[in-house]
Each structure stands twice: as structure tokens, then as C-alpha cells.
Request: fold
Amino acid sequence: MSTVHAPPSPLRGMLPGLLLIAPALLAIALLYVVPLARSVIFAFVDAEGGLTTAHLRTAIELYGRDLIFTVLVTLGSLALISVISIAIAGYLTLGATPWAVTALRWLYRWPLFIPFIVAGQTARSFLARNGLMNGLLIDSGLMDPALAQSLLDWRGLVLTFAWKQVPFVTLLLAGAMASVDRSTIEAARNMGAGRLRCLLQIVLPQVRGTLLVGLILSLVTILSVLSVPLMVIAGNPTMMTAMMAHRVTYYGDYAVANALGLFSYLITAVAAYVYLRMTLSQHKEGVR
Reply:
């Protein structure tokens, strides 16, 4: 009489894979999920343990200008990052001068390996009124010494964030452009389209998803950097990260700092929602 063997449990087959990813999942939970949940919860909890919105009201009353300043600086940085990254990646893809393409490919990646704290110090010494940039312009006769001014304000933040993040976005964008079917570009060139038109009307629409991913990752990075605002701006308004650090360092007020962090989460969530909507719409168009 033959024995009937029970089919293997699906969980048993998944167990090795679950064990392999368990350390990564545990690290994500402890380093990201738990702190995120704690900060969101304690932004609405008062000293007695009850629910309150007082921390949010305090954050808006005291740091409303800083919230608006953060949003504007972030949008300005992302706009500048987009323009420069598209230009560099487009030239790497469509450039006709081999030595210039090679030199640009070699040069544009350097800021990737420079920490933000070094970038902040470099910006501070380069963009100050008596800094390297004004010194070079004055010595070359292109600027009158009386017209020299410091760029250690919102302009310095935008330039520093863009200088640091452009290589990252360009790296993603150049890889996506390199995978575009060259026949479409060559057909447009044969029809008389210039390189700029090919870039804007043929190549860029095919890689806009990659561009959006790079910008969202840059948004998260900009909203999380503390060293650059502290080193570039010495006053108010400033970025939310600097205000969170100030609130914790000088007042020990983690509740209001958590409330400020909540606004960062909301900005990132909006960007993620826009990306998901665009991805889903592109997927539906592809299915059709």
C-alpha cells in the first residue's frame, strides 16, 4: 500500500529567502520605521500623554517663515539640478566632440565623492564677500571691488545643493539616455532636427521617469542635510533641519522638532504621490 506524501508547505520554501532578507528588514525597521513612527506620534502627544496639536501650532507660529524658505530653496535647487543635469546628460549622449564628451564625463562626477560638510565649507570660502569667486573676478578686472557681495544666503544654498546633487541625477539620466533607441534620434537628425530639439522632444520624454526619480531622491537628501544650512547661512530664515537641531540643542524640545519633521515627511509624501501617479499613468498607457 503506497503512502501519500503531503505537499510541501509554501512557507518552508520561502523560509531561506526570508532568513536572507531578515537582517536588512530588521535594520530598516530599527533605523527608519521605528524613528519615523515615534516622531509622528510624539508630534501629537503632550507632556501628560494626551493628544494635542499645540506642537504643530508652535512650529508654524515660530518657524513658518523657515518652512516657506525651505520649500522655496528646495524647489529652486531642484529646478537648477534639472536644467544642468539635462544639459550635461544630453551632451554626453548627443555630443559630437569626443574629447569634450570624455572630459565632461570625467569631470562631472567629482562632487559625488565629496561629503556635504566639505561642500558646505567649500561654499563658505568660495561664495563669501572676500571669498575665492569674488577675488578671481576682481583680480581679472571683471568686477569692481565695491560691487562685491556675499552669496551666503538662499543663493548659496541653491548653488551648493545643485553642485552636490547634479552629478547624481546626471549619472542616472545619462544611463537612461544611453539606453534610448538611437534610430529615433538618427531619424530626427536626418529630418533636419538639431541636437537641442532631439534632446527636448525625443530623448527627454523617454527618460522623464528616471529624471523624476533622481529629483525625488535629491529632494529627500536636501531636506535631510544639516551641515550645509548651518555653514552657509548665519541667520533667519533658514532650512528646517537647522531649526530642528536648534530646537533640540538649546531647548531640548523634541516635540516641536518632531512637528517640524512632520512637514518634511509631508513634502516627501507629496513628491512620492506625484511619482506614483505618473508611473501608474505610464503603465496604463503601455498596457493600452
